[in-house]
Hints:
The structure holds 2 protein chains of 2 kinds.
Chain A lengths: L2 E10 L2 E10 L6 H10 L20 E4 L2 E4 L14 E4 L6 E3 L2 E2 L2 H8 L19 H10 L7 H5 L1 H4 L11 H11 L9 H6 L11 H5 L6 H17 L2 H10 L3 H5 L2
Parallel strand pairs in A: 1-5
Antiparallel strand pairs in A: 1-2, 3-4, 3-5, 6-7
Chain B lengths: L1 E8 L8 E8 L18 H23 L4 E2 L14 E2 L26 H14 L2 H10 L30 H21 L2 E2 L2 E2 L3 H18 L2 H9 L8 H13 L3 H24 L9
Antiparallel strand pairs in B: 1-2, 3-4, 5-6
Helix pairs in contact in B: 1-3, 1-8, 2-4, 4-5, 5-8, 6-7
Amino acid sequence: MSDITVRIWRGDENGGEFKEYVVPAQEGEVVLDVVHRVQAGQAPDLAVRWNCKAGKCGSCSAEINGRPRLMCMTRMNSLPEGEPVTITPMKTFPIIRDLVTDVSFNFEKLKEVPALKPKPREKDGTYRMMQQDIERGQEFRKCIECFLCQDVCHVIRDHEENKENYAGPRLFIRYADLEMHPLDTNDRRKLLQEKAGLGMCNITKCCTEVCPEHIHITDNAIIPLKERVVDDRYDPIAWLGRKIFKRSSKTQASA
Amino acid sequence: MTRYGVILVTLTDSNPKPVSTPVSLGGARGGPKVKTLRKGAWWLPQLASGVGLALFVAYASWTAIRNGHYYVGIMPSHYYVGSGRDYLSPFYSPCLTNSCVNTSNHVFNWWKLSPAFLILIFPGGFRATCYYYRKAYYRSFWFSPPACAVTEPHKKYSGETKFPLILNNIHRYFWYFAVVFAGILTYDAVLAFRFSGGIGVGLGTLIFVVNAVLIWLYTLSCHACRHLCGGHTNTFSKAPVRYWFWKKISVINPHHMLFAWLSLVWIGFTDFYVYLVAMGTIHDPKFF
Lengths: 255, 288
């Protein structure tokens, strides 16, 4: 088999540049295998974060030929043959070194999400949930927190200043998981619109395109949340209905 | 590292109020400062969508302005070349003004422009605020972003939080109208079975039926429809009817983009077919 040329971004917060490495091609490899071979031979100081090599830990997120992807789930034979493979760190987050970025933004935003506040227990002291009540949330809990959706989201990728008031797609599926929970009594819609920046999302679906778990982030989380916000503040008929029937908006959502 | 004031909330408050806690965000980013490192024709889908939408807008404008040849009448007083059919262009349905050739309605007799403009506000508004078309025109015309992981050209970005884009939140109201219009186009499809000699099926009949089916598929696969019919519910086990609707709509919702394009192209084709028959350019074949 022929050789592979990889161009890897080397640098830190003070700047960096592409460095080119040539390694022999091997059958069945993924990008992370090649990076490991570069690290094991030509660049032992190359910083790369990884863990499971099975697409389940979400550690090896990077941009391969400009597309946010997991290095461990990108097969070399899926990339254009004979061309150099470009590997850069996730653009949206501050660089630490080489391919490693500081993703603490996401964990800080996670702290802003109001936790589940369950309604009172039933008379026998238990909670009961039927399968159909919780199946929507099960899709959201497939998230491996690779933060590729956050990385590709142009709201913060191209506008650093928006980070202050924008949670991002990964957090929106967390909000959706809790908002749709059959036991939850918290109402996060005002928070979503005013502080989490749900209105900033213009549903261009890049988050869904890059999700390695194939979660339908836009269709099943963000758009339903937007519709719930519309229920709460942009729908005069829903508002009138709540006034006439003296229902809280959360009561309506709780069926 | 830049230091921002960021909002935290209390965890168990039933109406969470923001409280301020400072956290560190920002910092120098890695990678080259280029627009994108993506290879291949990443611009092609956006270009195709943009051209498709622009062509349709141009066609719809022309057909609305032309204000004629939108009806093939079944009555002798409405006879055009190739008549004996009851085909009304979907761009002019329902006929609401005196100028409309197949009606004596006086409700909108003050309207002096083409009646199509009265009609197109509603399906036009439905499509303009549709979640799929928003994605399409934000990418194709606003370049916000031009494609995934391609830097957008704007210095500032506020999304759908300000006028006019905040108006996209009224999508569900256009959906209510869209259901009415889907019903009207279904009625038109039924009328397309009428011929001067009785009931029959012509090529135009089939075109009208397909048009109605595609409009219904597009309307019912809408995200707002999915929410209103059941998605707003948290406890599906206590709302079996809403759950049934939600499940059914969830089957077709992932194909909303497909139905959006098919229905868009077909409604234009339907209008053009009526135009050609009304002009006498082609003869509408009757199968039986």
